[in-house]
Amino acid sequence: MQLGGDRMEILNLSPKDWLGGFLFLESPRWHKGELWVSDIRGHAVYAIDEAGNKKVAAEVEGLPSGIGFLPDGMPLVASMKERQILRISDGVPEVYADLGDLVQSEVNDMVVDAKGRAFVGGYDFDLFAGQKPLPAKIISVANDGSSQIAAEGLAFPNGMVLMEDTNHLVVAETLAHRLTKFDVNTDGTLTNRQLFAQFDELHPDGICLDQEGGIWVSSFSQGRFLRVLDGGEITHQIDVPGRHAIACQLGGRDGKTLFCLTTEGSMAEIASYKSKSFIMTVEVEVAGAGSP
Length: 292
Known about the structure:
By secondary structure, the chain is an all-beta fold. The chain is 2% helix and 57% strand. It is built from one helix and 27 strands. It has one helix at residues 267-271, and strands spanning 2-4, 7-8, 11-13, 16-22, 25-31, 34-39, 44-49, 54-59, 64-69, 75-79, 84-89, 92-98, 106-112, 118-123, 136-141, 147-154, 157-163, 168-173, 178-184, 190-198, 204-209, 215-219, 224-228, 234-239, 244-251, 257-264, 276-283. The strands form seven sheets. Strands 3-24-23-22-21 form a five-stranded mixed sheet, with no helix packed on it. Strands 4-27-26-25 form a four-stranded antiparallel sheet, with no helix packed on it. It is globular, with a radius of gyration of 17 Å. The two termini are 31 Å apart.
C-alpha cells in the first residue's frame, strides 16, 4: 500500500522472546549455524544454537564487544577496556592486535571482511562515566595484526556493515542520529564519506544488512528496530516497549530470522551490572547478507 507518491507504508512487525538470562548483550553474529553474542557486563562471549542451547565461547574480563571471524573461522572479539582485538583459540582469548596507541578510552563494535581485515570503532572518552563526547574514529586492523586509523571525526561510531559487492562500509553514528557510508580502499582506509540515512531523534546502535541492501537499525533510546534503505526511507518497524534496542542480526537456516538484542534498565543500571538482556526474534522477508 502507498502513503502517497512512491513512498511505501511502514510495515510493523511483532517480535517474540527467545532467550534471556544475560546482563547486557551486544554484537550478534550468525556463524555456521550459531548465533554468537557478547555479554559485555557478563564478561563472556556465547555461541547459541538454533534450539537456544548456549555455551561460553570465551571469558573476557576487559568487557567483550564486537565479534568477527577470520577467513579460517578463527573468532575475533574486541576487548573494550583493554583496547585490544583478541582471537579465541580453543576457548582461550589471545592478543591479536593492541590498539592502545590509537585509542585512549575504549574500542567497541567491529566487523571483519572476507579477507580478514577488521574495522573497529574507537573512543577517547568514556560515555558511561558521563565524560563529554569527543570526535571518534574507526581503526582498521590488517590480517597480520597491524593497525591504522581508517576514518576520524565520527560521532560515536557503533554498529557497522560491509557491502562487499559494492566495496562500501556503513557505520551507525549514534550521537549524530545517522548512518554514514564510506568507500573501502585497498589500504584499509575509509574515504568518500556519504550520508546513507539521517534520523530525527533515533539513536542508531547495532545494524545488519540484507540481500536487497536494506539495513536493520537498532535504536537504543526509542526501543525500536527499523529497516531503512539508502537515502533514508523506512520500510519496516519493530517496537519493544520497556526495553532498549541494542543490536540485531539476520540468521537462521534461511537467513530470514532477525535476532533482536534488547535490554531492560537505565544507563546507571547497565553500568552497575543491574540490567537484564534478552534475545527476541521475528521472521522477515529478506535474508541477511554481507558482514556481519
